[in-house]
Write a structure and sequence with these properties.
Layout: H1 14-24, H2 31-46, H3 49-63, H4 73-82, H5 84-91, H6 95-101, H7 110-140
Helix pairs in contact: 1-2, 1-4, 1-7, 3-7, 4-5, 5-7
Length: 146
């Protein structure tokens, strides 16, 4: 008897990726952006039970997504439009992103793509860790509804 595994969870949406990127941004001079991201997180968690559930589900989806290659291009575009620098750090190695990228610029070498992939994987896992931390915090101490 063959064991059937459940299907993988759907990919996270680009808005959650943008929120995680803003909260993960190590730039100490951009305090206002970090404060806005914290406020957006709190608002999403406390707006309604549906908003709380949706954000927690999306945090789970980020945790369950081993690579940004599994995310539809439309959601990656939403992430790209919100934080281009973090997007390039996490997803700049994906072939579809590279192909759509630099226009007439010279194509990156295989070595350059391998380096981008290594550093992108580290940054992607950083976003996944942030999602796990925020999910744990949301489940341990759910916010009071407004």
């Amino acid at each position: 008897m063959a064991i059937e595994l459940p299907p993988p969870p759907p990919p996270p949406n680009g808005q959650v990726l943008a929120l995680l990127a803003a909260l993960s941004n190590p730039n100490p001079t951009d305090h206002s952006r970090h404060a806005l991201a914290l406020q957006a997180r709190d608002d999403a968690l406390s707006s309604s039970p549906e908003g709380y559930g949706d954000l927690c589900r999306n945090f789970c989806r980020v945790l369950g997504c081993p690579s940004p290659q599994n995310i539809p291009l439309s959601e990656l575009e939403s992430f790209h439009n919100s934080d281009r620098e973090m997007f390039q750090r996490c997803c700049g190695w994906i072939p579809e992103v590279v192909a759509a990228g630099d226009g007439g610029a010279a194509s990156p070498t295989d070595e350059d793509l391998a380096q981008r992939r290594r550093s992108g994987t580290v940054m992607w896992n950083t976003l996944r860790q942030m999602a796990g931390l925020l999910l744990k915090n949301a489940l341990v101490t759910p916010p009071l509804p407004k």
